[in-house]
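Write out structure tokens for Quinolinate synthase.
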Amino acid sequence: SDPGLVERARAAKAALGDQVFVLGHHYQRDEVIQFADVTGDSFKLAQQAAARPDAPYIVFCGVHFMAESADILTAGHQQVVLPDLAAGCSMADMATFDQVEECWEALEDAGIADDVVPVTYMNSSADIKAFVGRHGGVVCTSSNAKRALDWAYSKGSKVLFLPDQHLGRNTGVLEMGFSLDDCVVYNPHRPDGGLTHQQMRDAKMLLWRGHCSVHGRFSKESVDDVRARVPGVNVLVHPECRHEVVLNADQIGSTEYIIKTIEAAPAGSAWAVGTELNLVKRLAGAHPDKNIMFLDKTVCFCSTMNRIDLPHLVWSLEALARGEVVNRIEVDAETAHYARVALDQMLALP
Ligand code: 13P
Ligand code: SF4
């Protein structure tokens, strides 16, 4: 990365000192992650958001829903900055508040809303989290989905899982013992989600029809290909991958789990990793004694994670050093209140 920009980021961060706390998700570029005070998966970053209450500014190097969650979890006492407002998440955008309300009405019409506990993946907007909080549900991440579902099924006989159908299905089938038929897909673009009331009543899990376009690129063929090319390779994938990929993988887990697994792996072992490319490249660079490769032949960056680059980071840090808060992410008080209920429920999971 540009040495001039690296120097400017360093200078601005030094000038801010304890005034700023920089959080970085594992999918961030190397040029950005080097300035993070804490790096983590979505769960760790949610836990860490409030770890430095004396810092008036949090610079969140990640995507919009993560910055919103940090604002909610710090109760607006700290100002959360997202260096580029265009850093959204296409999966989070697949569930809008109006669509989720409409879905709930359909569940009411089918006579099952009282039995349903909503569970939303962290990768959702604050108003979806608030909806879930209002309806007695919980937020989850890829590292605690099973625990969140165990909790939800202790409260009701059915779950509406938002917005990632793959994380929901993979957890339901592989960790909760459900059959594929127990999980039905609710399509927000069809009346009643494309389901009959009977199908809604028979389902154990209603999966919102959302997905991650980055992880959606991996297929069973990617796994078969790499196994044919690299004998003895271990296939390690993120649970946002399609069910056929996860079924054929050796290990499944969040970004933090992926990092720990590679760190603990013996020298000389081979790993095909099915997750975002910045992370896989960083792991390959950090472990030259292991053969670490990307699971697919085509490259797979998350374009919105990549929006946060060094120029945007420098711009936001320099602005803060002048006392000017740019790109603040602020969730309104009522939404924040109910979203916090669902987030706190996650943080309190056994
Ligand atoms: P985790 O960091 O929780 O594994 O999530 C991955 C992701 O897609 C974040 O957008
Ligand atoms: Fe969203 Fe997928 Fe990018 Fe994560 S990797 S931020 S789920 S689009």
